[in-house]
Design goal:
The complex is a heterodimer.
Chain A lengths: L1 H22 L12 E4 L1 H10 L5 E4 L23 H5 L5 E4 L6 H9 L4 E2 L8 H14 L3 H24 L5 E7 L6 E4 L6 H11 L3 E2 L12 H7 L3 E5 H7 L2 H4 L9 H4 L3 E4 L1 H4 L6 H12 L2
Parallel strand pairs in A: 1-2, 1-3, 3-4, 5-7, 5-8, 8-9
Antiparallel strand pairs in A: 5-6
Helix pairs in contact in A: 5-6, 6-13
Chain B lengths: L1 H26 L7 H12 L7 H35 L11 H15 L11 H21 L8 H26 L2 H12 L7 H20 L1 H9 L1 H6 L4 H23 L5 H13 L3 H25 L8 H19 L5
Helix pairs in contact in B: 1-3, 1-13, 2-3, 3-8, 3-11, 3-12, 3-13, 4-5, 4-6, 4-7, 4-11, 5-6, 5-11, 6-7, 8-11, 12-13, 12-14, 13-14
Classes of the chains: A alpha/beta, B mainly alpha.
């Protein structure tokens, strides 16, 4: 009996000693032995662009770009997380963009004192994106790479602006985005907050005009509104486009066939990461987008 | 007398099964704990140590309360199902029938869509309180609308149909809220309706535990009058059962258990429907056995489902509502085919 107790005490003390070193490195800058779980697709894309992915041990389900990220274990959908699942990866830091849930799981993680970090800069504009790249660059000790990426964005944006000047007209563009959770498609209007406005900003920078001026996004829209707004170009994010299979199939969506875009076969597939949030390749993507919509 | 003894033996077996499942449920998950890990965590906690390792804290603060919450919620849903099926004398009844779970889901949906506008903030309690209030409110609505002066043959049938109607109403309310919600909110509503035990903590164990005790004790006490009701409503009256009173008591017990359990986990379907049937196939319709048995089997079934939800995609996790049917249906169907249950 006493022997068992001694063994328990010994094991307990060993756990205590080894445990302290591993889990209590609060707020350390990202260095050699960090184990990072990062929840947020935009953050993850930037981590890869910065070349800071070596310490990434877990990502969320929506983080699918760049393709190499699929080798990293996923902790599930960012609004249906499980504390134990995340902690099984033994993270020394959880990076998230404040869009995580459910709330009680977030509270569990806080109660267990797992270090969490959200970056200050909001990547919701070109300047915001550059600020975020620099902030993340500093955090991951990749300052130089961050500067290179910012310079590339400036360069590509200047090139995009030059290209856009050449076009006289601004085509009306509708963005169709499929929700993964429910089987409905959503039309993105201009304005609103968060990623709602991002697609609109991108289209405008690419020399287009959002066909639907309505604020907000991510709501089902009447097929009549789509037909009435009569976009000349329809951009469809890859998840929905691939499920339909082709631009021809996309025309079968209610309201789409009647539009100019439908009649002239100007329905294009775009990647979510190119259009729905700002990223390190945004300049390049806008350049591509401007050519696509002015074809 | 012989039958009662066999029932008791069956209860003991169910209890053993429940303990075995719980042991597995405590041990395995996103992280597998060895018996050593578990012992050190518990002894460290009992010794009042404040610097447990992260693994030990995961065990004490996440794993154990979750395993216990599984048992409690499963028991609530199982007993709720047994009570409802006994009261309505109808095999397709489940505990949410009188509006409780759709009301709770509506309360949760309201919280997800408009919670940010609330002046009162109860922290982590806001969502369970909103859900529980929705469940109680919708059930009360069903009671009030189904109530007439002419108690008698039709009163239980009227309650059943009113429940169906109110359910439909609240489901359309949830549909509307998902429609006006922004995408992340809509997804939260969808996930809530699939249920999860990932938010389990000691507070939820305490609250649901209290509901289980306060529900189970009177439920067992009213098993005999419910048995009388098996023969028929008028026959039960003739046997001296106050059917009107019994109805309200049983419904109140059901609301207490189902609304509180659902408030902490989201809607978990099917457990309440299937558990009483499995037991009835095995041992017949005696409610004295069914009520205790469904508490044990409900907890066991939910533990198994939660274990599968936790380990199948680790480190990610499945919503438990997806798993309960996958686990329960094969058991149910095989029993249904092997016995002449319905004839």
């Amino acid at each position: 009996m006493i022997r068992t107790q001694k063994i328990f005490t010994l094991v307990f003390l060993t756990c205590l000693l080894t445990g302290c070193g591993r889990f209590y490195s609060h707020q350390a800058a990202a260095g050699g032995s960090q184990r990072i779980v990062c929840i947020g697709q935009a953050y993850n894309e930037m981590i890869y662009a910065l070349g800071a992915q070596a310490n990434l041990v877990g990502v969320d389900y929506s983080s699918t770009y760049p393709p190499e990220i699929k080798n990293v274990p996923t902790v599930g959908y960012h609004r249906a997380l499980s504390a134990e699942g995340i902690l099984s990866l033994k993270p020394t830091l959880i990076i998230h963009d404040n869009n995580i849930g459910p709330d009680n799981v977030v509270r569990q993680l806080q109660a267990l004192n797992v270090p969490m970090k959200t970056f200050q800069a909001k990547g919701d504009s070109i300047d915001g994106e550059k600020a975020l790249l620099r902030e993340m660059g500093t955090f991951f000790h990749k300052e130089q790479r961050a500067e290179e990426l910012c310079a590339k964005i400036d360069h590509d944006m200047a090139a995009a602006a030059e290209t856009v000047k050449k076009y006289k007209n601004a085509p009306r563009v509708a963005v169709v985005h499929f929700g993964r959770a429910s089987n409905v498609y959503l039309i993105i209007g201009n304005g609103g907050g968060g990623d709602a406005s991002t697609a609109g900003k991108m289209v405008e920078m690419a020399g287009g005009k959002m066909a639907i001026e309505k604020h907000g996004m991510q709501q089902m829209t009447s097929p009549e509104i789509i037909a009435e707004s009569n976009p000349q170009v329809i951009l469809m994010t890859e998840y929905g486009f691939d499920r339909l299979g082709s631009a021809e199939q996309a025309k079968t969506l209610p309201g789409v066939a009647e539009t100019d875009a439908g009649k002239k076969d100007r329905i294009y597939r775009v990647s979510e990461h190119e259009l729905m949030y700002f990223g390190p390749d945004t300049g390049e993507n806008i350049l591509k987008l401007s050519k696509l919509i002015h074809q | 007398m012989k039958a009662r003894r066999a029932d008791r033996l069956c209860l003991v077996l169910l209890f053993v099964l429940m303990i075995a499942t719980t042991a597995a449920s405590i041990r395995f998950g996103a992280i597998d704990f060895s018996s050593h890990d578990m012992a050190t965590a518990v002894s460290g906690k009992l010794a009042g140590s404040n610097d447990l390792t992260l693994e030990q804290r995961i065990f004490i603060q996440l794993r154990v309360p979750r395993a216990i919450l599984c048992l409690l919620v499963g028991a609530c849903l199982g007993v709720g199902g047994t009570l409802m099926q006994a009261l309505f004398r109808n095999p397709i009844v489940e505990p949410g029938l009188v509006g409780t779970s759709s009301g709770a889901a509506f309360g949760a949906a309201l919280f997800y869509v408009f919670g940010a506008l609330l002046k009162v903030n109860l922290g982590g309690w806001t969502l369970p309180v909103a859900a529980c209030a929705g469940g109680v409110l919708s059930t009360y609505l069903v009671f009030a609308l189904a109530h007439t002066k002419h108690e008698g043959r039709s009163s239980i049938l009227r309650l059943l149909l009113t429940g169906l109607a109110i359910n439909a109403l609240f489901m359309s309310g949830i549909g509307f809220l998902s429609y006006v919600a922004r995408d992340p909110q809509a997804r939260s509503i969808i996930y809530w309706n699939l249920g999860t035990l990932s938010g389990a903590d000691w507070n939820s164990v305490l609250v649901v535990g209290a509901a289980t005790v306060f529900g189970l004790v009177p439920a067992v006490a009213y098993a005999k009058p419910l048995n009388a009701l098996l023969i028929g409503e008028e026959e039960a009256v003739a046997l001296g059962v106050n059917v009107g009173r019994l109805k309200w008591i049983v419904l109140t017990i059901n609301v207490l258990m189902v609304a509180v359990a659902t408030a902490f986990t989201g809607v978990i379907s099917f457990v309440g429907l299937i558990v009483p049937h499995i037991l009835r196939i095995l041992r017949g319709p005696d409610n004295r056995f069914l009520i205790l048995g469904s508490a044990l089997l409900g907890g066991t079934l939910l533990s198994v489902a939660d274990l599968i939800a936790r380990v199948s995609l680790r480190p990610a996790e499945l919503p438990i509502g997806i798993v309960t049917a996958v686990v329960g249906v094969p058991v149910f169907l095989s029993l249904l085919r092997s016995r002449e249950y319905l004839s």
